[in-house]
Every structure is written in structure tokens, then in C-alpha cells.
Amino acid sequence: MRRIKATDLENFIARAFEAADVAPADARVVAELMTRADVNGSEGHGIFRLPQYIRRIKGGAVNVRPNIRIEREAAAMAVINGDNGMGHLVMRFATQTAIDKAKETGVAWVGANWSNHAGPASLYASMPVEHDMIGLYLAVGSANHLPPWGGLEMLLSTNPLAVAIPACEEAPIVLDMATTVAAYGKVKTKAQRGETMPVGWMMDRQGQPLTDPGRANEGFLLPIGEYKGYGLALIIGLLAGTLNRAAMGRDVVDFNADDTTPTNTGHVIVAISLEAFGGVDAFKRSVDGLVRDIRASKRLPGVDRIWLPGEQSHAKRLDRGRNGVPLPPPLLANLKELAIELEIAPLA
Question: How large is the angle between the packed helices 184-193 and 329-342, nearest 10 degrees?
Fold first, then answer.
């Protein structure tokens, strides 16, 4: 793969959104968050999504000049109306609202409706960490690829969960997971690269393993932990979707196949202040100690290292910050076509 500097990625993404009539300041915010996704190793949520985002903007499915606002609130909660804006803009606003409220109340729960796909869950769960807070993020996925356990009808999505917990000297613990074995973005990147999927990601409608990502529409994703993953996807959808009067179940729009319909995507961000619990430094040192105990614990034969959630992303962040983000040739070709279509300078 070819390595591209993060600054070059960010500048190209910003140029593309500006060419699609996104306000320059908003284009820069979305570009920075998308680039951060790539630098962290979330390839299915970074610049890979740019052509799709532009298609939906051009199709009228996304409002490029949204009035993102607080629709309902109390001391420790709020509901954000995203006005069908880019999900990155909506969730940055929602997360900052949660952080501000948690500084006063100790904990804050902020939901959002009329949003869009916002990239990886870890982006927003990690933002409160910078303020000595724990971040918790939930969302309804932007397409249904999961049936109820034992069923065939696609009524649920990958409905992700992310939790970020600050440490002192160690990297934060950051869990970012779909409620399916693999997120659908990983299926799409496998298809673009001409790779096969591992057995266990998807199943066809006859109950057989599906490993060809080009045939993904012939089957469905499998939930983590079998029926437990199905239950978790359902609960997250109710909290992030139904509670916020956002899309859930049959109302979810497949943004992979539909470039004209607003999705009314729902999200939740929770910020928990460590200071409200007392002893910020003591807590963070305790996290350090636990991380080191786990890392140094006895391993099975053949296991080189025990990883903590978020450590591999942290390692990628350090590598890609120094050496650039690796992009495969098919994606580079797509981005070149996009630059020609938008009449902008190509990716450096």
C-alpha cells in the first residue's frame, strides 16, 4: 500500500467537501475527524467513506448547512436535533454538550436525532478523556444487516458501542466494537481489496458460511456471542434510536444503497467526570496498575503479547503519525476519480 501523510488526507477531504458546498469550517471539522479515524486504524470509517458521503450530499440526502441545536434538555441530559447534518458535526456538538454538562453535574447523557453516519464510535467516546472523563458512545448503525436471533428479516444493525477510560502514564483503555462479529465497513473494505472474509463474519440465508464480500447482500452479519449479541444490538438500538425519536428497526435507511433519503440516525454520548467521584489521579494510577497487571500476566503457549482494548489503535496512531496512512490501490483510484468529478486538486 502507498503511505499518505495525514495532513494530505485531511486537506484532500476538506477540498472535496467544500466542492460539494459544505461550509469551509464544517468541511475542515469533518476532514479532521475522518483523518483521525484513518490514523487510528479504523480504515472502514475514514477516507474510504468519502465517495459515499459525497454521493449522498449530491443526492440531497444530507443537509450541508444544518442548524444543529439542543431540542430538549435538563441539568444532566439533552437531546440534539442534528437537522440532517453530517454525523461528525452533530456528534462533535453532542459530545461537547455532554462534556460541558458533566463538568457541572458529574455525569451527562446526550442523545441525538436527525444525524447521519459519524465514523467510528471511538472518536466520540475518546473526546471526554481529554477532560479527565470517561466516555460512553452508542449508535444505531446506518444499515440493517442483522436479523433477530433465529430469524431472516434484517431488522437490526451493527449498533456499535465504545467506552474510553483515562489512564495516567498508559494509553487510555478504548473499547470500540460492533454488536456483530465484524462491522459492515470491514466487509466493504474486503470487497474493494478483492479479499475474502473469515468464516464467522457472515452467513447466507441457508445457514452456510459466507466468505465472498461481493455476495454480502445474499446473507447477513453474525452477532457476537450469538443470542447475546442480538440482545445487545436491540438494547443499544432502543437507547440510541427509539429513545431519541430516531430511526430503528424497519425505519433504518440503508445509506449504502440509498443516496437520496435522510437516515435520521440516532446516537448517544455519555460523559462521566472522574472528579465527581473523587481522586482523579488515584483512579488513573489504578488504571495504569491494572493495565500492567494484565499485560504482564501469564500467557498461553504461542501468545506473544496480551493486548488491552485500544492498544493496537494507539500503536497504529504512532506509526501512521510518523509514516503516513496506508491506502490500497483500489481506494487511491476511487479518490482520483472523485477529484476529477469534483474538479479539485488530487490527493498528493
Answer: 90
Whether the per-residue pLDDT at 1 is higher than 90: the answer is no
In a shared domain, residues 236 and 254: yes
Same domain, 103 and 227: yes
Question: Range of 348's domain?
Answer: 1-58+311-348
22 in a structural domain: yes
pLDDT tens track for 255-312: 999 999 999 999 999 999 999 999 899 999 999 999 999 999 999 999 999 999 999 9
Burial state string for 280-305 with b = 16 or more CB within 10 A and e = fewer than 16: beebbeebeeebeeeeeeeeeeeeee
pTM recorded for the entire structure: 0.94
Residue 23 shares a structural domain with residue 103: no
**316/103 Cα distance (integer angstroms):** 31
Tell which residue, 117, 125, 165, has the closest CA to residue 284.
165
